[in-house]
Amino acid sequence: MPGYQHPCRYCGELAPGDAAACPACGKVNPCGDLRCPKCRAPVKETWKACAGCGLKLETVCPKCGKTVFFGDHCGCGARLTVICGCGEEQPPVAANCRKCGKKLGGK
Ligand SMILES: [Zn+2]
Ligand SMILES: [Zn+2]
Ligand SMILES: [Zn+2]
Ligand SMILES: [Zn+2]
Asked: Distance, CA 70 to ligand 3 centroid (Å)?
């Protein structure tokens, strides 16, 4: 079944409504509601933590130092995702890679 698809909010390509990342442009949360990267519960940009699992939804922008929501980009334009050694790009909120489980951010 082809499930329902939504246009990516960044590049406009269609992606599954529950996609964690856009297959076309690789940005996280391409469509639909923002979701917790850990438990996938819907979250809002104004939240400081996930209501479902308590995961902190804020991160510090490496460029401007502001505390911002975990989305792809800071208002200053810096990219906020981290790329694991395995190549998986993800929001910088989890301690371990969501794909291979390795610790992120070096040892
Ligand atoms: Zn896209
Ligand atoms: Zn959660
Ligand atoms: Zn910034
Ligand atoms: Zn990985």
From this structure: 11
